[in-house]
Amino acid sequence: MTPVLSVLVHNKPGVLNRITALFMRKGFNIQSLTVCITENPEISRMTIVMSDMDEAALEQVIKQLHKQIDVLKVTDLTDQAMVARELALIRVSSPIAERAVIHSLIEPFRANIVDVGRETVTVQVTGDAEKIDALIALLRPYGIRELARTGLTALPREAASSADPKRAGEAQVLHI
Amino acid sequence: MPGMSKPADDETLTRSGEGGAMWMKGADMVVEALRREQVEVIFGYPGGAVLPLYDALYQCGIRHVLTRHEQGAIHAAEGYARVTGKPGVVIATSGPGATNLVTGLADAMMDSIPLVAITGQVAKTVIGTDAFQETSIIGISTPITKHNYQIRHASEIPKVFKEAFHIANSGRKGPVLIDIPKDVSGEEAWFAYDDPPQLPGYQPTVVPHHMQIRKLMHGLQHAKRPVVLAGAGVLHARATEKLLAFVEKYQLPVVQTLLGLGSFPASHPLCLGMGGMHGSAAANKALYETDFLINLGARFDDRLTGKLEHFAPQAVVAHIDIDPAEIGKNVPTDIPVVGDVGEALSMMLSIDVPAPDAEAWREELLRVKRELPFWWVQDGKHIKPQRLISEIARITKGDVVVTTDVGQHQMWAAQFFPLNQPDRWVTSGGLGTMGFGLPAAIGAHFGQPDKLVVAILGDAGFQMTLQELAVIGEHQLPIKVVIVNNSALGMVRQWQELFHGERYSESLLPWQPDFVKLGEAYRIPSARVERDEDLTAALEAFLSEPGPGLLECVVDPNENVYPMVAPGTGIHQMVGVRP
Questions:
Q1: What is the pLDDT at residue A165?
Q2: What mean pLDDT do residues B303-318 have?
Q3: Which helix (H) or strand (E) element contains residue B367?
């Protein structure tokens, strides 16, 4: 199980440090972490993807997050229907003669070329982690020069949160 | 005060604005906030970045105790908090002043001690430039505080102080640090202190869920081998009387944690004493064999549980804790109850269930308690530290505040000093901070000025913070310093003897200072006792004298703390339960 947590926090200086310090102190490992502002400028959303862990450990992570004064809400998206997206920029070796091949490879991924050079092209792709992994694997034989991934950002699906209100309301969303 | 502008120059400093707000300087706001929080004593040490704050404190009417090191100040604040239940307040300057608070903050975090620590910081204009005495105490203290603040403008002071005291002393209590840049102290703003704190991310559950309480009471009536484990949560909730009423109503045996001592009278027939690594045979038998364990505000620390798979293996575990993160953290819990222990006990008392049929169990535990008490063997030569503690308890009739340092003497004090009341026991549990006991005694004195304070210290721990003797000497405080001198880091020596093939690596202290001359240098009446036959007379003279005193007790250097649950073993595998 790769846990995904969506955490609403006060948008204040030092809050990111509090959260990462907590993860370090408790020995929890983060795979990716994105932070961005929400519709309310005073509140930020963190999307945290953790390394695999058992349920007891995940419960402890969630409880510890709740103890932070600046944490307003923790939602466990792990087993929920969610919209989760990541963006990757992939700079791939691409002599002019091979460019058509690259185009045809990325096209089914609805990826775009966002920068063109003499030696390389830079591909931008969005999607879930598996889709991005797949495209990277396809492009690797051509020579990936540089790679940047944003990490996952996510929201629960509206249908999911209303279809199972008990799970979303009690088990997954704790207020302390 | 948003929307309110600075008053005209001819208005006086204290002239009221909207809703009783006052126009004040930052440093004066800090003092005013402390006054509103009814702070009666501050422990601290001045320095460059807190000069404006100390100027405001000068002749302000709040007592300030100048320690000789910031670590002494924060442990004193902890001692004060432990015997009063009120937040301790400590002030230190920026940089080294702030970093000297680190051990005390970590100690208070581990043991849930309410503290408000105020640190100076370099001026906002130079933060980040490696200015003189600059350190990022916010970064340093984040993992060891319940919360911390850096004030960016004087107008934030009332809100931050209100929140800090609220956070420190509610929910699971703990230390809160407020970092104040020097220039903020000189800024002027409106001061209003009446608004309640607005903390949407901090809403501790105080009243437990009634269904969980019912489940607990339902389980209790069917138990055959019930036990109550009383932790520090009982003391934090100031719920000792409710605990006594509940225990007597259902005739339940009680085990206490190290920090829970005093939550239930040691003299009570149902008291089995402390459990855990150096706990009593009866207490650990109860924890091992119980089929229904009610944990009241203890956090199942590893020194209590021993190897987890052997801890209460057959029990239905009910855990009442104000911190939900403690429930299920170490021991799987069948009946989780989130809330204040006092509230929980009130609800438990309001539900009448048939008392569990546990007479045989009770009798069995009381038999073990009778037959396997804590013990020592006189050798006719050395002072035995266990007898030393017992004699202090006998002579004072237990009517004192006891503080300890960390190590063997701490365990002997826990075993042999019967605590029958709350607010009389000050010890460093979770962090195990050597050097805690002496400054904590100073704080305990200011919390309970009418009580004699006995600081039971090891010779090694004493030397970590002995400069605080100056505070005792200067104010001639009624604090009796007992140095249990075994010329070793006793607990380290004991572990090396038992688990490291008697290789005493850096744990023996054959060279010692002259503790008596040291005490006298601080103008504290001091004496040494070396022979067992002189012990009682020496203690009687020492304890009956008014004012401060220091007594060095040279004890058997080879004495070990027993019984013992060896590391990595279960609490049923005790060694040394009898001579």
A1: 39
A2: 97
A3: helix B359-371
B224, B326 in Cβ contact below 8 A? no
Q: Is the pLDDT of residue A162 over 50?
A: no
Q: In whole angstroms, what is the distance from residue A37 CA to residue A11 CA?
A: 7
Residue A60, classified by CB atoms within 10 Å of its CB into exposed (0-12), middle (13-18) or buried (19+), is middle
For the entire predicted model, the pTM comes to 0.93
Q: How far is CA B322 from CA B148, B170, B212, B273, B502, in A?
A: 21, 10, 14, 24, 43
Question: Residue A170 has what pLDDT?
Answer: 36
Nearest Cα neighbor of B179 from B63, B36, B81, B50 is B50
The pLDDT of residue B20: 76
The set of residues, in sequence order, having a beta carbon less than 8 Å from that of B241 and lying 6+ positions away, is: none
B182 annotated active-site: yes
Q: Which of B203, B204, B325 sits opposite A63 (nearest CB)?
A: B325
Is residue B291 over pLDDT 60? yes
At B354-410, the pLDDT tens digits run 999 999 999 999 999 999 999 999 998 999 999 999 999 999 999 999 999 999 999
CB B204 within 8 A of CB B171: yes
Say if the Cβ atoms of A67 and B204 lie within 8 Å. no
CATH 3.30.70.1150, chain A: domain bounds: 83-155
The C-alpha atoms of residue B250 and residue B253 are separated, in whole angstroms, by 9
- CB contacts < 8 A (A, B): 43
Phi, psi angle pair for B92, to nearest 5°: -140, 160
Look over chain A and give the mean of its residue pLDDT values, rounded to a whole number.
87
d(CA B122, CA B128) in angstroms, rounded, equals: 9
The answer to whether B98 touches B137, Cβ cutoff 8 Å, is: yes
ipTM of the complex: 0.88
Q: Where in chain A is the domain with CATH 3.30.70.260?
A: 4-80
Residue type, B289: E
Residue type, A176: I
How does the average pLDDT of chain B come out, rounded? 96
Q: How far is CA A144 from CA A94, A123, A138, A147, in A?
A: 9, 11, 10, 7
The pLDDT assigned to A97 comes to 86
Confidence of residue B110 (pLDDT cuts 50, 70, 90): very high
DSSP A168: I
Asked whether the beta carbons of residue B147 and residue A69 sit closer than 8 angstroms, the reply is: yes
Q: Is the pLDDT of residue A102 over 70?
A: yes
Strands A4-10, A43-50: parallel, antiparallel or unpaired by DSSP? antiparallel
**Dihedrals φ, ψ of B90, to 5°?**
-135, 145
Mean pLDDT of B426-436: 98
Instruction: Classify B139 as helix, strand or coil.
Output: helix
Residue B357 to residues B223, B361, B475, Cα–Cα distance (Å): 7, 9, 56
Q: Which CATH class is domain A4-80?
A: alpha beta
Q: Does the pLDDT value for residue A1 go beyond 90? A: no
The alpha carbon of residue B269 is apart from the nearest alpha carbon of chain A, in Å, by: 38
Distance of CA B388 to the CA centre of its chain: 23
Q: Cβ A66–B167 below 8 Å, yes or no?
A: no
Q: What is the DSSP letter of B138?
A: H
Question: How far, in Å, CA of B179 to CA of A11, rounded?
Answer: 20
- Pick the catalytic residue: B182, B285, B369, B480? B182
Name the residue of chain A whose CA is nearest to B140's CA.
A21
Top-level class of domain A83-155 = alpha beta
B143, A67: Cβ pair inside 8 Å? no
Contacts of B478 (CB under 8 A, 6+ apart): B445, B452, B453, B546, B547, B548
Q: Quote the pLDDT of residue B258.
A: 98
* Residue B416: its H or E element: helix B408-416
**Distance in angstroms (rounded) separating the CA atoms of residues A137 and B279:** 60
